[in-house]
Predict the structure.
Amino acid sequence: MGLTAMISRRKMRAVMEAISREHIDTDAIAKEWADDVVWDSPSDLGVGQTILGKAAIVEWYKRWEHEFPKKKLVAKNVCVSGMGLPNRTLVIMCDWTCTETDRQGREYVFDGASVIHSRNMKVVRMTDYISFAGLPEISTLLGPAKN
């Protein structure tokens, strides 16, 4: 799995860089997702909400970009586990730090980890785990999700 892991690590770091740009190219990021991808995203309670489908996740990213025009995600460690060929079923874990600035100029810094399940070279499930230490309630920062 050496080559598969190397490519997966490189792709994960590229996604973090793409999300960190002033404008998130959601089309480029979403091309890696299955149409019925599932994203378990964080909530104030740490339990999270589940967003179903590529279009709904893209919409979430657009709202996040609007509320937080300046952001920087830095991947610390990227680990890959699974089968390369023939099944191409992978689990990718990345721990990261995010620094984001909202439209009012307030800066927030927090850590998290993402777990990505990929099958046949498409992301089928993403789950984020975020440390909310020192952060305001997310519901005060982003409007309600539209599923």
About this structure: The domain at 2-130 is CATH 3.10.450.50 (Nuclear Transport Factor 2; Chain: A,). The chain has a mean pLDDT of 84. Residues 2-20 form the longest helix (19 residues). The two ends are 36 Å apart (CA to CA).
